[in-house]
Task: structure prediction
Amino acid sequence: MSNKDLWRLSATETAASTIAGDVTAEAVTEANLARMEAANPALNAVVVPLAEEARARARDLDRARAAGAPCGPLHGVAVTIKINVDQKGQANSNGVVALKDVIAPGDAPVVSNLLKAGAVVIGRTNTPEFSFRADTDNPLFGRTNNPWGDHISAGGSSGGAGAAVMAGIGALAHGNDIGGSLRFPAAANGAVTVKPGLSRVAAYNPSQTAERGMLAQAMSVQGLIVRSAADLHLSMPALIAPDARDPFHTPLPWRGEPLEGPIKVGFTKETYEFEMHPEVSAALDDARAALVDAGYQVEDIDPPLLREAGMVGYRTLMGEVLALMEPAIRAQGSAEINDIFDEYFRQFVPYKDVELLQMMAKRSYYARAWSEFQQDYPLVLAPFLPQPFFGPDRDLEGAEGVREVLGSALWSYAMNYMGLPAACVPARLANLPKGPQPINVQIVARRWREDLAVDACIAIENRIGRMCDPLWTRMG
Result:
């Protein structure tokens, strides 16, 4: 492979090559910057390029290696950082014009942990206003487009991250997820991710002026979007490293104890009142077959309290948003984001006062039911969305648009509410009337066992193949 094609390597392949000395961190960085220059203008995924900083960082890594310093596990791997997380000297705008000059005085734990592992940050990726849409557009930087075409939204809120990594701009893309913001972009772009469970990844922004709401702390997590599932095993151990600034971080190893016998996987196509598209059904069948072939014991199940947990979870989160965020949204948000929040509040009527506190407490009820259920089924293979991913601005199309985008995403935000790990992996490439698009499925893991979900993603990817390969052929 020529140096100019090094952007095609996975993070695992890149790190192996740079650590062995087969290629330099500088060569990898230049290849990724060239890919960004070529692909990003059509996508608007990276909205703050950091080319010169990346070059300097790569040269420092090469000098340190030549001097005999040990290499980190992500030595020379190109990464992007979402613009709602602090990176020293950069604006944490969160897609809001009024916040464009909020400059971070230091790095968030996810940034410092990636740097400690040897990664090279090449740019910062786009997000919708307040990171609160499943689509990515804002008045500050504009729309992020999906590399598969304009017929598909890039997803959100980590839409810039998903579009960038699948287009070949960096091998790893940082994102975060309070109701699906890692998994929506993974599903939209055909990438792979695992939403970590509660307290798994240290979180803190040095630029913050107040602590987040309790439910936001309990539901929001930091993670990575990748195009090769095995890259999560390489990169997530670095991401989950402890940081004293997060006093509730749980310092557990990435790999848990091996489970005895074949791992049981609960399988369901339940989408409740939402119709399942035939291509989603076929993707679930393909994923199931892949797991059976890999030695998993897959059984049909009835998921406990899933719809109730999802609806209660979203109404509870909306209650906290109404109490703590609404003044900023009304004062600083665009007319479009205010229209969307009006519809959120209509469809997911926020709990208030004592009822809000009661429903926050009820998280334990749902989480306990799933904890007991997953003693028998450590993994659950389920839909992510009941339909192929929607088009741009679908959530601006009134009640039906918001219902399709978030109302049908019960399997997404239920997992945040209960704090469970949940991976999202492509299992099919559908040829639909508007154009081809990937179809992702979700794998829910037992608490603390993100590694099991990633193992299952690898088994599915080994059979289905990586979605970046047909995408790059399509992109030319």
Summary: The first strand starts at residue 46 and ends at 49.
